[in-house]
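INFO worker-7 received task bundle
INFO bundle size: 2
INFO processing item 0
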Amino acid sequence: MIELIWGILNLALVLVLIIFSAKKAVEIRKKVGLSVAILFSFFALSFITRPGNEQKDKKFEFENSETEKQSSSRNTYLSKTTLEDDLFSKIELYVICDGENARSALIPRTGYSFGTEWSTEYITINKTEQKNTFEYQAGGTRKWILLGIDIYSEYKEFSGISKFKPSL
């Protein structure tokens, strides 16, 4: 719920900034000239940033000698585990496995995320003694952003046990 309020606050501040800069640009144009008004508008609107495409979900590859030997004789499939399920967004752990061993994993964040950004720091997958189960530990940072400026960083850790089961 707080993410929704944060997103509405971000949107409101962007609209206020646009309205303020438009009014001030008109005043500056009347007093000084058009070129200074255009320069002021570009400067004022430079605070509005859109999310960069460089922030992609980081995929973690696991090297295992057993996996390399058996990879040709086994099918691989995707196992999905929900780590956090909020009202408007979801953080999930996707593990590509070959039936017994994890080959790779990633943690994407889906849903409404206006004003926040998720970045995965680490993922650890360990096979347990029970068949088709694994123990996971993962951590990452959620950044709270206001008008493109990082205001607060929140570190989160997840751990638990899940099954190697295909997601549908």
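INFO item 0 finished
INFO processing item 1
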Amino acid sequence: MLIGAAVLAFATGCGTAPGEGPTATNPMVAQSAVPGTPVSNGPNVAEALDTANSQFKLLADGDWAGAWGLWTDAAKKEVPQKDFEKVNKTCPAAQKGVKIDLQEVKPVSMELVELTWRQGDKVGHSALRLTGKKWQYEPAGETLVEYASGADAAIAKRKSSSTC
């Protein structure tokens, strides 16, 4: 499942001072520390998290086309924009306005930052991938699987699990 608004935090040393950055003026996103967040001399984690913050805000605002637009090209090939929009316009309560808390930010390489997040009782994973000079959001496999059989099947599954 995709996610709503996020609590994004920047660990000391990743290039953004407390009170600065993309979350400082965004009322949908609270700030807090993420203990144990690894920050190496690797990718620009603050820039990567700008993309995550944008993704989560777009979802919380119900801007499905905008959120899909931040996805990696590979994810876009697996989930057509029209399917993503149809499912989320039909079942917006599953994500719209629902806050998530970022649990862990893990730089894996210069081009990949993995995220662990919590949305209520659900813990999920996603990633941020640097393609060229642009960070893109990479939804987890479970999101891609949800849409694999098309929009109508995804809507039916959400209805049967009472998330629509």
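INFO item 1 finished
INFO post-check item 1: The two ends are 12 Å apart (CA to CA).
INFO post-check item 1: Residues 1-40 have pLDDT under 50 and may be disordered.
INFO worker-7 idle
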